[in-house]
Amino acid sequence: MPLHATRIRERGFNHATEVAREVGKQLGITLDTSSCQRIRDTPPQQGLKHDARRRNVRGAFTCSGNIEGQHIALIDDVMTTGTSLDELAATLKRAGAREVTCWVVARTLPPGEVA
Q1: 115 or 75: whose pLDDT is higher?
Q2: pLDDT, tens digit, for every residue of 6-47?
Q3: Which of 101, 98, 68 is nearest to 82 (CA)?
Q4: Which of 70, 78, 84, 87 is nearest to 30 (CA)?
Q5: Three-state DSSP class for 87?
Q6: For position 10, what pLDDT does the model report?
Q7: What is the DSSP letter of 42?
Q8: In whole angstroms, what separates CA 63 from the centre of its chain?
Q9: Given this model, what pLDDT does residue 111 score?
Q10: I want to staple 36 with a disulfide (CB 3.0 to 4.6 A). Which of 20, 47, 63, 114 is the partner?
Q11: Is residue 113 part of a domain?
Q12: Range name among 16-20, 24-28, 49-53, 57-61 with the lowest pLDDT average
């Protein structure tokens, strides 16, 4: 899951990229961190309702690499509503990806649900 350059400077690294790096090593999958970029520095999703989250990330990503016909695995550290993953997956499909699969390390529960 690409972060905007501003967010990377704030955090010092991209958590999802570090997870993806290890997953790639373990599974023998090539890690590509350059084909897609977050082109808008969106406000944090935390605290936004689902519709506001969707609007917040609309048009936030671009893909310039050659991904035509590929099966892409997106990796994120935490998924709340999935709107960021949905937006990036849609961007990848428009850029020619054959299939997009989303893998996450942790999933937050919707409000009111108990583990």
Answers
A1: 75
A2: 999 999 999 999 999 999 999 999 999 999 999 999 888 877
A3: 101
A4: 70
A5: helix
A6: 92
A7: P
A8: 12
A9: 65
A10: 63
A11: no
A12: 49-53
pTM of the predicted model as reported, rounded to 2 decimal places: 0.88
Per the listing, tokens 């993953």 go with 85
The continuous run of DSSP H or E covering 23 comes out as helix 15-27
Cβ pair 20, 75 in contact under 8 A: yes
Classify residue 115: in a domain, yes or no. no
Is residue 112 domain-resident?
no
Q: Which of 43, 54, 101 has the alpha carbon at shortest distance from 80?
A: 54
Q: Which residues of 75-101 are buried (b: 16+ CB within 10 A; e: fewer)?
A: bbeebbbbbbbebbbebbeebebeebe
Number of domains observed in the structure of the chain: 1
Residue 23 domain flag: yes
